[in-house]
Structures are given as structure tokens and as C-alpha cells.
Amino acid sequence: MENLFMKFMAQNKALAQQINLLNSKLGTMQLAAANTQIGSCDLCEIQGHTSDACAMIQDLASPEQVNYMGNGPR
Ligand SMILES: [Zn+2]
User: For FRET with 58, which of 9, 11, 34, 52 sits at 20 to 30 Å CA-CA?
Assistant: First the structure.
């Protein structure tokens, strides 16, 4: 029975490694979320602003830029 378990574990070693990788990625994501809460950006990784206040998002959501692209120079 124990032998069978060892065999199973050996066969699933690759799977276990993937799970470990996934777990470490999740840990990194949780760290990033925690950093966001204390004012570190998730998008450009610059501290001092949250990802909500990131210039990258504000560039995308800027109404001026939308108007400029919508109207164009006349
Ligand atoms: Zn940013």
C-alpha cells in the first residue's frame, strides 16, 4: 500500500511541481495585492500610488485623449 503511494507520488512529481509553482505565484499575487493596499502600484511597480491611480490607467481613461482622437484637428 505504501509502495503504491510512493509510485503515485513519483508519477505526480511533475504535477506537484506545477502546484508548487502555482502556489508561489499565488503568494506573489497576494503580496502584490498587499503592496497595492499600502500604496504600491501593481501595474508599473512604482511605489507611491495605487494601481487605481496609475498613470497607465489614467492615460487609457483620459477623456481629453478620447476627445482628441474623436474630433481630431480641424
Ligand atoms: Zn503605476
Answer: 34
